[in-house]
Backbone:
């Protein structure tokens, strides 16, 4: 692979950045809100699973203790 000079590299890099389709402010806000909602739902799910497992273990260990 041939080496390009730094000036040519910078020109090519700027050309590639110009091809990027940046998200709008609305799209960024919407996806951010969706991430927070899904993170909260995941936290609730794992909290419920944790409570169920703890209750089951306490019940099993209570029979032997």
Residues:
């Amino acid at each position: 692979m041939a080496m390009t000079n730094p000036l040519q590299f910078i020109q090519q890099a700027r050309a590639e950045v110009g091809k990027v389709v940046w998200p709008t402010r609305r799209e960024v806000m919407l996806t951010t809100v969706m991430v927070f909602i899904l993170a909260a739902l995941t936290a609730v799910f794992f909290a419920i699973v944790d409570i169920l497992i703890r209750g089951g273990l306490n019940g099993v260990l209570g029979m032997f203790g």
Observations:
- The longest helix spans residues 25-64.
